[in-house]
Fold:
Amino acid sequence: MSGGSRLPAGGLIDRSRTLRFGFDGRDFTGHPGDTLASALLASGVRVFGRSFKYHRTRGLLAAGVEEPSALVGAGEGGRFEPNTRATDLHLYDGLVAESQNRWPSLALDVGAVNQLIAPFIPAGFYYKTFLGPPALWKLYEHVIRAAAGLGRPPHLPDPDRYERRAAFCDVLVVGAGPAGLSAALAAARSGARVALAEMDSRLGGSLLGDPAQIDGQPARDWIAASETELRTLGVRVLTRTTAIGYYDHDMVYLAERVVEPGAATGDDGIAQRMWRMRAGRVILAQGAIERPLPFEDNDRPGVMLSGAVRTYLDRFGVAAGQRIVLATSSDDAYRTAIRLCDAGVRVEALLDARSGDAIDADLLRRTRDRCPVETGVRPVRALGGAKGVTGLAAAAAGGAASFIADVIAVSGGLTPSVHLHMQAGGGLDWDEGRGIFTPTAPRQGQVSIGACAGRFGLADALSDAWRAGLDAAAATGGRPVADTPPRFEGRAFADQISAFVPAPGVNPKKVFVDPQNDVTLGDLDLAWREGYRSVEHQKRYTTLGMATDQGKTSNLIGLARLAQNEGRPAPQVGLTTFRPPFIPTTLGLWAGEDAGFHVTPLRRTPLHDQHAAFDPPWQAVGYWRRPRAYLRAGETLATAALREARMVRTTVGITDVSTLGKFEVSGPDAAQLLERVCATSVSKLAVGRGRYTFMLREDGLVNDDGTVWRLAEDRFLLTSSTGGADRMAGLISYVRNVLYPDLRVGAANVQEHHAAIAVAGPRARAVIAAVVEGMAPPRHMSLGRGVVAGVPVLVIAASYSGERAFEVYAPSHQAVAVWTALAEAAQAQDGGLYGLEALEILRVEKGHVETGGEIDGRTSAHDLRLEKMLNPRGGYVGQLAQQRPAFADPDRLQFVGVESLGGPIAEGSMLVERPGFAVQGHVTAAGLRVLEEGFVGLALLKGGRARPGDELLAWSPTRTASARVRVCEPVFHDPAGERYRD
Amino acid sequence: MMLIPCPHCGPRAHAEFTFDRPVEAITRPDDTADALVRNLFSRDNPRGHSRELWRHTYGCRAWIALTRDTATHAITDVQAWGAKA
Amino acid sequence: MIRRESAIVTDPVTLSEPQPTRLVRIEAFALDPAFAEAFEGAVGAPLPAVGRVTDAPAGPVIWAEPRAVLASGDAAALSAALSGVAAVSDVSGAWRRIDLTGPGWRERLMIDGLFDAESPGFAPGCVAATLLRHAPVMLCPTGRDGVLICVAPSFAADLRAALAR
Structure:
């Protein structure tokens, strides 16, 4: 008989209720309070999974998140979560879980054949194999992909929601074991705003199930009373919440499991919650993680950490096995042996590597009253095979010994968890005797207490924690109370010695260090022999510590081996960098609500619903959505766009241009500010008149373009492109506030205040006359004020399309009525609505440059043929930068038109002599002649202004498209502007 | 993410701010091309204290100058731009 | 499924969207006594302190930038009254208002937020400009167990839908 079993009594589980769950297709039962691991262990399951490379069988090593081997896929469908630690999954009714990395089954896995070729696949073998022949690389890739990875990803969309919350506190306590609870109580009583985060489902940490007495009461009562008091004091108590990362300025990310992996959510649909907690001080009480011992085949099912064996006993009422042998180099295993014996579990022996006189006599005596204890004995080899251990071979001074056992409980001592301390920035002290690093020199507001600071004794932890809580409260404005800390009267048995070196004669190739990635001591030695001697190289060459457990039980052993090979002390060899997240996290947790449709925020124009009524295809322009065309029955996007463009050229069209940047600049120095920002003159505009303008960057290249209108003597309206709107807002603010703060001017961002509707076409004037009261349609580049459907509007006359055109500005909350009136009037003129595609076709034919196309951050005013408009008086941003030598280079990319000598031109095509020849430019926008046949485009071409008539190939090999084109002036429709000039 | 103490709004998350440039890289329209190129493109990048221009874009929209330690992100001496010291 | 005793108690909130009113942006040329005096004369209330909201006859005055406030009133009239000391622009269409009321209002502002709305110091009379669910907003706690959220119209529909979930 071998394997675990449920004891008839004991544990913090609710034996009155039964939960049903499935694992690998078999039905099991457990109780509320169980984890998947404890319930399976109680049912006698020994094999939980297979290792990554060799596909060796794996059982439970631990009871917490440090578990490297018992990884399962939990849940079904879109909720399926791979690589879930069975120890970190709290049991629920209806749970469905499966083991990983095995085919066809856990018991019979084809991948196990890797063990036969193990000598050929040590660490780093893939750097030396799969090299040739190149023709087989595609095959290798296929094979390697199939072999790589552990769990399989879900293939259905995730139905759940993930929430992200900001939170603030004076004192964040990470970990609610005895130290964390003590610190939280001290801080809360002292008036601090406290938050307490605990990764387990309940508070208590290492005290859970422990029979210790605190303040004269059983630990479980002290925990319950503490929790009640904390909640009463208004502490934010978060369970199932893990601190996963410590960031700048004491920002800690806390990952909360609202429901367990794979479980259905509550009414709010939320599966997990990410807290972004900003703290004043952070008290780290994360505890310590036990490490195993090095001996041959120490990866077999049945080898478990002794602290975990005790946890399964005390917390879950589960005997991990029928016959247990313990091997240790620390006092902690004695507590396990005593607890096992007192619970009636058969303990074969406790083997301590230390000599008898190095061990507390009282502890030895108490344990020997219950079971055999042998000192000076070290484990050599686990006996047994794929189904689990059957015993342990050990070595003593007097010779060899072997023990029959189905569980080998090992303890190499405790390793303080310094992860968050290191992420926050800090130092480490090395304790050679105990073989541990302890935190020191914190760089932010963190302090480590209890086991994570290397203070393993309970009494010390409680009083340290109390002090830390008071100090943290005082530092954040609280008033420290004079109460006494909680007291533990017992003795602390917390000694340990480092036990990284295996017993003599042990074959290092058979000693597993990282059980998930199958890294052995032999692999570490191989890496060292091959010259990978920095700790960072060791990690990456062998993959030690790179698995989902991130080396929680293995990193220090690896470091010690490297130090041993190097002949240098461990701190000189150093540790690899600690990075978030502390435990694996799902992508959904980080995405929060920014998934699916909401992956970016959506900005709607004031006329969005008017467009949506036509269900048009939408164009994302930054966060905005603009309609591409208003398709009619039977139309494609291309035919609709052409129809709309023709409509604008022949009758009239209206389009929503509300997304344009708009600024109202007013005050005595308004013109002066504008002439700093804009590269054209502005002050010469008469009241009621406007002009095209453009703005440069500080480095002299064109930044954006737009128009400027003089509304009154000291009031202007400046417009810019949609894409440049935020940039312009920043530039105007920068010039006004940083460079010229004394100007008597105000610059208001009125982008959202004004909705803007363009009315363009030969009949545009008729539409404006019909709809706008109190004003005659303004002359080209003039403005007027009127009323439409009771709404006051500003009307400017400017053309982007090349036809006579107007833009009607109305307050955005009143724009719908204006749009409706204009749309009706346009229809009455045999016109209608036009969208972004038509707008683009029209502007290409007219040769207007566009931000994002021809204004691409590399083109100068001269490149774009705008140099004549530069303000001769200067003084504008970027003016003198234009004198940089590169601006005079004749080979610069310059704005030209291209007309096709054949078929359509693909946008983005390269301009070349012949395919494969040097690229001389590219097509920035492709279009066609609206009222005639023929394809045209706009382009940037080296030295283009001097090359009209050149013939080139517009070539797009990725779309297999090419067209012969002729370079020309960039205007294909009404070059003189007769259609709209007065 | 960093916490930046805005002189008007108090300590706020970094996401509300936009980093603009080191203060020594501020250029003016009347800077010669040489001076401009030097300020914009040829700057020292020392490890340690950096005096920087930031904007509280999604807060009070104010421009502020602060000193940031580029190694530790410690932020000190935050002043509203143009504020008399 | 295990139902944990949740640490979160989701208190109810209600949303409503009042109609836009006449809103102006006043940017002082300089923050000097001349401006402060002219402001009080034109608006009928003293200039609010940094980060504060004050009441004026035509509506609340909201501190927005080091030398700009938002106030209620007619842009042309205020522009004339403050001629020489400030620039006044009509921004009536630039802000939508969402009233969030109910016991859970502070908690709601923490979801996808950056600002400490749970701080007791954040109370009626305060205004905080920040980002909420990716939208630039101004938050003004009201005395009715709730908060007035000012948001640009383009973000308003998204923000309203997100707050209502």
Summary: The longest helix of chain A spans residues 458-475.
